[in-house]
Queue: 2 jobs
Job 1
Amino acid sequence: MTTDATGSILPLFAFLIPIVAAVCTVPLQRISARVRDYSLLACGAAVAVLAVWLAAGVAEGGVYETFILQLTPDIWMYLRVDAAGALFGATVAVLWVLALVYSWGYMAEGHRLGRYYSFFMLCLGWTMGVAYSGNLLTFLIFYELFSILTYPLVVHEQTPEAMAAGTKYIIYILIGGSLVLLAIVLTFFAAGQQTLTDGGILSAEIGHGRLFAIFWCFIAGLGVKAAIVPLHGWVPDAHPAAPAPFSAVLSGVMVAAGSFGIIRVVFQVFGVEILREMGVAVMVTWLAGITVLFAAVLAVNQDNLKRRLAYSTISQMAYVVLGVSLLGPEGTIGALVHITNHAFMKGALFLCAGLFIRRLGVHRVSQLDGAARRMPVTAAAFALAALGMIGTPPLSGFVSKWYLGLGMLETEHPLLLVVLLGGALMAAIYLLPIVYRMYFREPVLTSDDRITAEGREAPASMLVPLVVISVLTAALGLAASLHGMPVWLARIAVEGFFR
Amino acid sequence: MTTWPPLLVAVVVVPILGAVLTPVVGQWRARRAADWALGTMLLTSVVALLLVARVADGGPFSYVAGGWEVPYGIELRFDEFSAVTAIICLLGVLAIVFSRRYAEHALPEVRIPYYYALLLLNLAGMLGFSITGDLFNLFVFMEILSLSGYALVAVSGEKIAEMAAFKYLVMGAVSSIAVLFAIGMLYALTGSLNMADVASRLGGAPVAPVAVAFGMMALGFMVKAAIFPLHIWLPDAHAIAPSPVSAILSGLVVKVGIVGMLRLYQIAYTSRALDLEALNTVLMWLGALSIVMGAFFAVFQDDVKMMLAYSTISNIGYIVMGLGLASSAGVIGASVHVFNHAIIKATLFLGAGALIFRTGKRTLTDLAGVGHAMPWTVAAISVGAISIVGIPPTAGFLCKWYIALGAVEAGHPFFAFALVFGALFIFIYYIRMVNAFYFRPPRDPAILEVREAPASMLVPILVLATLCLVMGVLGRIPLSFIEPAVTRLLAPIGGG
């Protein structure tokens, strides 16, 4: 146990509130849909405020911890909010609330809303738990269950495609989860029950063979969720099948949960020194580099918009793993910040995709011609997020890529800049044509009158989250250097990692 | 002090007496039999709880029947493993409550009192089995519970039930003969039937006969526990029996084999007459095979109860693997899973029973969409499913964690791998089940009109589902309870 942490009950509420909300969803719905919506919003907003408040506290140098309960004689469930966790937690909570509000409009005509909202809130609680886990067992508890609680949301539409995607999702995720369990068992045997500590909890004395086994079990297990090629298969299927607001969080923070786990493992289970000595990080760098380019190339070919965005997620999240595997401070800052920045940018893109589906009935890129005229705000948000994703200054995507680039030079891997810039270039190739189509092509009038007659801008409840998210995308870039911003938190985390 | 020993006798005698009197009480009105059985079991539960509290407080204790000194008299001995009596009583009470409506629906009225009598007898057999300190007594109780078990499988009187019961009986007889044979050999070697006494006298015995005796006993208990490939009797018997009986058979009766194995280990490790390395290796491999094969067969089942029956084989695989690992964490995990699996599997079987009771259908195809009509029951089943595949923090996770840890501890990381990926395999068919109940379109829309299960069924199911969570979250209580027993068990071989 570190001594500088303050005991606080607040982290506990970050996952208790959503659970209570989830349990109450169906009874509230009995009263009326409106009561349910506002109650859930209140709960979500409370979690977001809490998460941001914790992040602000951590930015001042604090660390919060909560002991929840003793699971077995030697296992404690223990939450600990450090800089990395606070940053991820705040990202999760804010994106989730926006997606929740967006759901009102998107799911308005949907079926089984009680189930949808209930699991949506449950997943929020469990993801917050992942962010705030203070030891590996707690991490495992949240990580495994939240993968499974996600399943009803992936298959929510209950179409044959959704069911197939759900099966694929759950099998991939469970294989990954099993590997993580195995890795944690091995770690527990080697190091006992220990708080995740900067600098690592494993010692080199347990032998290289064991360390290798543990490392690759972790990387392969978490890599499934982080969608490292060749473990990415579930991502392109699950995203188009899920409802758009859920796709947004799935892409924005669920995939990132895997990358976040890798950060925890690299810096707080192994520690930089052991990994440098083992020399395995280079292999991860290669894997991640291949993932960035491979997924980006595949994205170009996708006509289904959500599928294209899903491949983009694979490509972008690999940047995080890439940055971590450099084992240098600047690269790690880039990785941590990119999780947050990517969450909002990709969230914005998926929310736009959802609006195109709901308002224009359009699923495919090739049908988006002239969409900007009918939905100017949505199109503008999409363009902004797309530019951010490519890494245009001064948007937020640029900030993280800047740090990633610095990290590559700092660790003397200048060749990797090719990957960084290549990924950005490919992002331009797969995103900008969409923007071009929306703004500069004439709309093709199909026989489907609904598109011309009803196709117009979205209702306020869906536009507000989209606009907020776009503002965040820009603000996180413009204000990147300010006190308390993601870069600041990431720097605190990294100072610990490389102490 | 003096008040305890009679309680030790009472925990067996009360249900036996209750069983004998049930047909008399139920002669005029079948419902009376249900009340009587419930009352008997509640009384027994109180006794069992007092005993468990005592063992938690002061460690094992024993009582010598009739004042005859050990090794001449029959010794009843209550140790931490005997705490399984508490679970037996819990499931017994819940199964009897559940049976109230189920039996009326599934059985001819004239048989109902006999059904309760058999159920009580079966429970009494298990209670006796888990508290006796005498080998021959062990065999007698094993026969009581086996014979009543055969009859319970056949109780519905359908042709297929008789077939299943007969298959069960044949395999059960083989198991009984093996165990009896082994007990005879041990008696021949030591001149004693008291377990502790046998253990102390076995030290200098020649190796070959001891090996045969232990081997036969292990074989007999393994048949009872339905470990692969000795499992062939189990799926039919458990799937075809009335659902409350399935819960008892799958949750408890197969565990008799495990408790028997624990007793065998107590004798073997204490006496150090034999190095059990070979047996342990066999158990580890059979455990791993059971996990995988049970899951493999289950994937192809469409019948819900059949699937659950095969899942039992997988779970027994966990337990047997944990025993075979012979490392502290492994044996602790196995012992705790004896309790936890009983709770989880009872949740699932009673849940399935409620579905069958309301819909009259029992295949996944026919039950598609039932989750919307019976939300509470199916939610409880889902909790059971999540628990049985070992998702933290449910009850099933503890065993997976401890046994995997035990495998690493014993220097066999491969078995940790087999365990974790076997569990994955198991998840696949539970996913199929949850998919069918919630996400697949119903085959027959009428299924959306069925009502939720009656309270007498729903309450036991929900109690058990809650326990699935509680036993996981408060896992430290059973774990720290069982730990001293395992430490004692493994101390002679330098484990623990």
Job 2
Amino acid sequence: MNSTTITLDTTGLLCPLPLIRAQDLAKGLAPGSSFLLLASDPGVYYDIPAWCRMHGHEIIRVEELSQENVIQMWIRTAEATNRINE
Amino acid sequence: MFPSYVHAGTGYSLNQRFHQVVEFVDMERPTTPREVKAIALLSGGLDSLLATKVVLDQGIDVEGVNFFTGFCVEGHTHAIRKRQREKIKRNNALWVAEQLGIKLHIVDVVQDYKDIVLNPKHGYGKNLNPCLDCKIFMVERALNMVGFDGRTFDFAISGEVIGQRPKSQKRESMAIISRESGANDRLLRPLCAKSLPSTLPERQGWVNRDALYDFSGRSRKPQMTLAAEYGFTDYAQPAGGCCFLTDQNYSSKLSDLWNTRGQRDYELDDIVLLKVGRHLRPNHRFKLILAREEGENNFLKGYRQRYIQIDIANHTGPLALIDGNPNENDLRVAGRIVARYSQGRNEPNVSVRVRFPDGEEKNLSIEPYSAHEIPEHWHIGV
């Protein structure tokens, strides 16, 4: 969550595109990496936790900027031991 | 050179391993259930849920795949409309994968799928649904994928049932899908497999044919009974289709888009916008997309960089986008339509605000149309 965290901006995209973009980004990241997902579709409140549970990723923090209608999710990708089959 | 899925230390005797390796060389396929890997096409509906469960129960390692074509009913409209926002809509494919305890690939095929929609070799169904070509495309893509563990898939699983759908799930269509996808006998349809020729996974003994099913026809009762046996009580409603292209109204809007642009093509934004609002076409130069409620209003605001926007300055009312190249008179016609759907509909004049993508803005004073002044044929896809 420092200034070097990768930001994935999916605002304006409708589900499941934010999830697809997050999934594609996570595949290229090292285990245990963090990134910030920005989204405007509230469907991410379901999709992202379900995807994280499935693949061992972790949602570190969630915030909603109500004025901008933007949801912020900080996600940490699974550690190597958790994604041995991935 | 043995296939990559041949690993040392599988726990078999040397003799067993020798025979196994010989068979691998002959078949280029694994022979024991625990080494076999399948990919299941998951729409999020009941049939694919059950088909996958049947194979999982036979000890096969299964991953799921869900293809995002842009025409999926899942997600979009549920996210756009406010009244549906109050209950967050789950992604059914994700939910199904979780219930099954398998990993899911969600794949964006919007660009590649265009050719299926625009040039379906086997034509369209009742509307602009290229179901047969779609299925061929998806089976082929699925079998060419690589699993999360880097292994390829030995066969694909589909929830098709003979006679369930009029075009793509006829017996003869199923043979076409198997052949033209390149899957041939590597496509297993567990819910109706007993009524079809045996497939590779059955002949190899990876799955037990006796434990598969022979469902057929449009009735959903056998699936519901099987779901109850498995303890699945919460699943996507069986009657719901998963693709907007099967919808007559949606197909009318897509036809209109192609006809007026003079070419059969689309971008993702085009096909998303066909799901939103009322669509009215007063003439060939422009089409009006009117929000029906607050959620759609907010959604259409996101397109201010691409389309002319119209709303009513001095009354509550919908936001509308103009798609096309309207002249001055067209803008007045558009304004009169928008005014008709606003709180100012009974006023002699209302102020219409027109915003152009380049930031220019102007106001027009116009008289709202009365209900009978908007011809029925202006409405597209109603």
